[in-house]
Design goal:
There is one protein chain. This protein is mostly helical and 724 residues long. It contains 26 helices and two strands. A hairpin with a 2-residue loop joins strand 1 and strand 2. The longest helix has 82 residues. The protein is flat, with a radius of gyration of 47 Å.
Length: 724
């Protein structure tokens, strides 16, 4: 619609939208806007009126100024046109001369480029000579400063190599970079040897044995200065340096030279103790070298950070954490050793399982003690290589299968755990609790894996174990080894925990990784497993309700065949009591409900109670009321008995009459006054009465759950209403 409006109309519409807004209740402001704009138009009309004497002089002055400005602009344009014509003539006169010297100018430019080229070559040679003269001197600062004039970074304009990045001179660039690489190597050799000498005087890597007579302040300051110099000087080769490859699938960033020098004595000691034929190099004792690396890190990482981090900061490495890189170097020693030993260890499942446990413990200690980032290389990456990850998952599955057998074959696997530990309303069998702890342990073991794909493989294992455990429970129940109540409690606990886990951030992330970025909604990863468990639980509860109601039915024979049509009138002075024929039936119900409440979790009992009530409601209506004639006294007695039934269920629910809607409505019809019953029956039987007219008197009696046909059948059960 806006495409059909002019620019002014769009501005007007925007102004009105701003003034009135989207609220329809503000439309009354339109009248005020109209009046406001009328007043503004009148003021403008008065201001622009030529009849006003005060406006005439203002208009004359404005017109005069405008005329002067226009004349000035015309004059300047004429001058510019004349100058352009003269310039064209001059250029035409000079063009032959320019064409005559063009070749000479081109040669001059080439000579200038050659001069600049040779000057750069001379600069490189002079810097190289200066470095050669200073390399054996004692002034490291001068040496570093001279090198920085040669190379400070590809984006630095203060160095020769940096300035050459914008120049198309491949050979010159190559010469400058090769010169910088050569001198970088020489300088690093010089600085590294001095740095190692200072570390030796500090008794680095043996600091617990250091003497008391050395001067830590002087030696430490020297080490810090040398570290700063090594951080400052860079090599052009570092700009394109490849990642360090430990194995074909494990690569990491190269470690800085300073940290490499700090790690050198630890690397030497590590290789001495944990390689070759040393007694400390044992495949069944990975905890030995893990513990040693952790101890070295604990002894040194704070000293490394406090001593050498300021050197990195002074060199411009603001986002660089030297302490963590030192720890990374120690971890890399473990990765290198595992990469060598893993193939041999994987052949023995006991050794491999022990290695997994120790590696996970090592990773946890790294995170807790050093704040080691998950994005850094880790020893666990060796175990998550494809072939070894499958081996790990297979061992987890084997162990869990054996553990599930042990759990279910224990003496009392379905015995409830200490009720003081959990809510009294929740009955938790020991086997269900142990199984969920087993799943939780698996999650804790793979929680630290970086790749979502690896975590999803363990999640699939968890889902398979849940299905396997469910099948084992089905087998135990089908064979009759375990009754329905313990099985129901176990299933219920599994469902509750899995639902809670499904809302956990960890599992939500896994579902997001599984569903992909275009997923419409995020659901629980346990949705299918919970659905299967719920389906079986509902089936067991239905069977349990059927069994309970069948027991009640077996005891209801005498009650259903009592003398309801001929029951004598009750003495008004005597209170109603339960029918003697119903005592046994009610006693069975009391016992059943008491046992179910005692042995089932509260939520399961409530669901089973509703199922039992529903079946009793249907049974009493169809097999009792509709198959029995009731006298007035019989109907009153039956109504009282049903009141006791409601009270019996009222011990377990707040409004029991809502569970027996059909019995409740039938009792209303059986005990209604004879005249009311006759009128109601006549209305319901009438063929000329609409459906609404038939339901109106039923609603007045608050009979809502029976249709008109059922109401007729119930009313016809009364002996005081003759059949026609």
């Amino acid at each position: 619609m806006h495409g059909k409006l002019s620019e002014m109309e769009l501005r007007i519409a925007a102004r009105l939208n701003q003034e009135i807004g989207k609220d329809a209740n503000q439309l009354h402001r339109a009248a005020f806007l109209v009046e406001n704009y009328k007043e503004q138009l009148q003021k403008l009309n008065q201001t622009l009126s030529y009849e006003e004497a005060q406006n005439v002089s203002s208009y004359k002055s404005a017109f005069h100024c405008q005329q002067q400005v226009c004349d000035s602009i015309d004059f300047e344009l004429e001058k510019l046109s004349q100058f352009s014509a003269k310039l064209k003539l001059k250029l035409a006169e000079c063009q032959p001369a320019l064409e005559g010297v063009a070749e000479d100018l081109q040669q001059v430019r080439q000579l200038q480029n050659v001069t600049q080229y040779l000057r750069l070559v001379q600069d490189i040679q002079e810097i190289s000579a200066a470095l050669g003269n200073a390399i054996n001197g004692k002034d490291e600062a001068k040496l570093v400063n001279i090198y920085l004039t040669l190379y400070e970074g590809n984006d630095s304009e203060h160095s020769v190599v940096g300035r050459l990045q914008a120049v198309k001179a491949r050979t010159l660039k190559s010469y400058a970079e090769s010169t910088a690489i050569y001198w970088h190597k020489r300088l690093m050799q010089r600085l590294s040897s001095e740095f190692e000498a200072v570390l030796k005087s500090l008794r680095w890597a043996h600091m617990e044995q250091q003497p008391l007579n050395y001067s830590p302040s002087r030696d430490t300051a020297k080490a810090q200065l040398l570290a700063e110099y090594m951080f400052l000087i860079k090599s052009p080769a570092e700009e394109h340096a490849p990642l360090q490859s430990i194995t074909p699938s494990i690569v990491c960033q190269p470690i800085s030279p300073v940290v490499q020098l700090l790690l050198a004595p630890y690397r030497q000691r590590f290789r001495f103790h944990f390689t070759g034929a040393r007694q400390t190099n044992r495949l069944d004792k990975p905890e030995w070298f893990y513990t040693q690396l952790l101890n070295w890190g604990k002894e040194s990482h704070f000293f490394v950070g406090n001593t050498f981090q300021p050197s990195a900061m002074k060199a411009g490495k603001l986002d660089y954490n030297l302490r963590l890189e030192f720890v990374r170097g120690l971890v890399q020693l473990a990765i290198e050793k595992l990469a060598v030993d893993i193939e041999q260890i994987a052949q023995d499942e006991n050794l491999f399982a022990h290695l997994v446990d120790e590696t996970l413990a090592f990773e946890a200690e790294l995170c807790e003690t050093f704040g080691y980032p998950a994005s850094f290389p880790s020893a666990i990456s060796v175990l998550t290589q494809p072939r070894y990850l499958l081996r790990w998952i297979a061992l987890e599955e084997q162990f869990c299968a054996e553990k599930m057998d042990d759990i279910l074959q224990a003496e009392t696997p379905f015995q409830l755990i200490d009720p003081n530990t959990y809510e009294d309303d929740l009955k938790i069998p020991r086997c269900a609790d142990q199984f969920m702890r087993l799943l939780e342990a698996i999650k804790d073991r793979y929680y630290g894996l970086i790749q979502p794909g690896h975590q999803l493989q363990f999640l699939q294992l968890q889902l398979e174990l849940i299905d396997s455990f469910r099948r084992r429970l089905v087998q135990l129940h089908s064979s009759g080894a375990v009754a329905s109540l313990p099985i129901l409690n176990a299933i219920n606990y599994l469902i509750m925990v899995l639902r809670e886990w499904g809302e956990n951030v960890h599992y939500l992330h896994l579902h997001s990784a599984l569903a992909g970025p275009n997923a419409i909604e995020i659901n629980s990863v346990f949705e299918h497993a919970v659905a299967e468990l719920e389906h079986w639980a509902h089936q067991l509860m239905r069977n349990l309700a059927n069994k309970s109601v069948n027991e009640m039915k077996a005891k209801s024979m005498n009650y259903r065949h009592d003398a309801w049509p001929n029951m004598p009138e009750q003495n008004s002075r005597e209170p109603f009591i339960l029918s003697p024929s119903g005592g046994e039936m009610f006693q069975v119900l009391v016992t059943l409900l008491h046992n179910l409440e005692r042995e089932l979790s509260a939520n399961l009992f409530n669901q089973t109670l509703r199922l039992i009530a529903q079946q009793i409601d249907d049974f009493m209506l169809e097999n009792m009321i509709l198959n029995t004639r009731f006298s007035t006294a019989g109907a009153a007695q039956f109504n009282y008995d049903m009141t006791l039934l409601f009270a019996l269920f009222g011990q377990h629910t707040r409004r029991p009459e809502l569970l027996f809607k059909r019995i409740h409505d039938a009792c209303k019809l059986l005990t209604a006054a004879r005249g009311t019953a006759l009128l109601l029956l006549e209305t319901l039987r009438s063929g000329q009465t609409t459906a609404e007219e038939k339901t109106k008197p039923l609603h007045e009696l608050r009979v809502l759950s029976l249709d008109s046909r059922q109401c007729i059948e119930v009313l016809e059960r009364r002996t005081d209403i003759k059949m026609f």
